[in-house]
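Mods, move this if it's the wrong board.
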Amino acid sequence: MTAETWGALIAAVLGSGLLTAVTNNVWQRRRARADTAAVLNETALELVVPLKEEIKELRGEVRVVRQQNGIMARQLREYQAAHALHQAWDISAQAALMTHGVELPPMPPLAPTFQIRGERTRAEDYELPDTVEGAESD
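Not the wrong board. Structure tokens:
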């Protein structure tokens, strides 16, 4: 073998070793990136799945609360309408009794708790007399 052949052979061996090292380095980097992406994906799934379940559960709770809120709003409107009718009837009944000389104590409040001139008042604070002045007993 000549010196040229030896040179070519050494260059080929060194070149192939260098090419192999570069190729291995490139593939190792790609594999490391793929492994990193897989770990990140797995970690994200571990975090997202419980959150999705919690969101689903909370949406169910919100649905129930909204239904209850709708029911309570309807009941409030019904109570307000009944309150207005009761108040009008009380005023009408008191006026009718007064025209016949029946004196009644002040009407108790129609709401359980409310403000009158800055004083807190409750219905149980009123005591109704056993008899009403001017009313005939049976």
